[in-house]
Structures are given as C-alpha cells and as structure tokens.
Amino acid sequence: MFMIDGVEWPYPCGIERVAEVRPSEASGLLLDRSYFNDVIGTYMRYTVTVAVPIERRADHSAIYEALTDPVDGHSFLLPYNQGTVEIVGRVESVGDVYVRLPGGGMYWKGLKFTVMANHPTKAMALGEVLARGRTVMPEVMSPEVGARYVWTGTGWEEDD
Q1: Which residues lie below 8 Å from residue 128, measured CB to CB, with a gap of 6+?
Q2: In which band, very low, low, confident or very high, does the pLDDT at 29 lie, cut at 50, 70 and 90?
Q3: What is each CA distance from 120 to 23, 32, 38, 43, 141, in whole angstroms?
Q4: Rounded CA gap, 74 and 117, in Å?
Q5: pTM check: above 0.85
Q6: Per-residue pLDDT for 119 more than 80?
Q7: 20 to 30 Å CA-CA from 136: which of 1, 12, 37, 89?
Q8: Within 10 A of 147 (CB to CB), how many other CB atoms are there?
C-alpha cells in the first residue's frame, strides 16, 4: 500500500528504499588528515514497482498521469520500518512496459517510479547540534552584510 497526494493505491508492490545521509559543502578532508563530516540530514529515496491488475487499466493510467505531472513534488505515504513515513518528494523517473496481444489488444504493465524527498526526513535538533559543540546558524536565505541574529529560545531574530 502507498499513497500519492492523499489517494491510496492498494495494489501489490515492491518497494526499495535508500537513505542518503548528505554532507554539506563544508565537509571534507582536514589538514590533520581527519574527515570533517557536516551532515545536513538524511534524505529518503524510494523506488516503487506496482502490479496493477490488467482489468484495472484506468488506475494504471491514473497513477502514471499523477506521477508525470510537471510539479515540484507530491505528498507520498510509504512504508518505513514497522510503520509509514510521509514525505514530500520529487518524482525522478516513471516507467512501464507496453504489451501488444494477438488480435490487437494492448495494455501497460510493470509501472515503476522513483521518488526523492525534497527535505530531510531526519536532521539534528538544536539541542543535538549544541551538545556536539557545533556552530548553530540561523536559517536565513539572503542575510545582509553585517546583520546579526540572536537566538530567543524559540527562534532566530535579527538583532537591531
């Protein structure tokens, strides 16, 4: 079972997951030959192969059309350990196989897609960052030169 944008698709499927633990650009080999690993977070990648029964061709087409919409992401509910995880992710590939039958019949089978999370599923909380002695940085996209930020206990505020 999996869901795309709140729609449940109850068909048998094979699901492969990969957790990508991504370092920032600050990561790398230091002069003392140790490796500094500044982890941004863990991003999930899922590859799903769906077995839609031949008599449910309309559902196969509906899933295909939803996955091939040119949007920045979809909401997915996928298996994770003994439960599920909801991720907003981008569809990286969608594929299936065209079958032509004797007598002119046809159908599509073997629908397969890969989705990559747009945001980390796991990341260090502020307390964990501080406990590891790391520098905490405000999440400001375009700070002005000379701007100062203060942690208020609940968030970052620009200091006047």
Answers
A1: none
A2: very high
A3: 12, 30, 14, 5, 17
A4: 9
A5: no
A6: yes
A7: 89
A8: 11
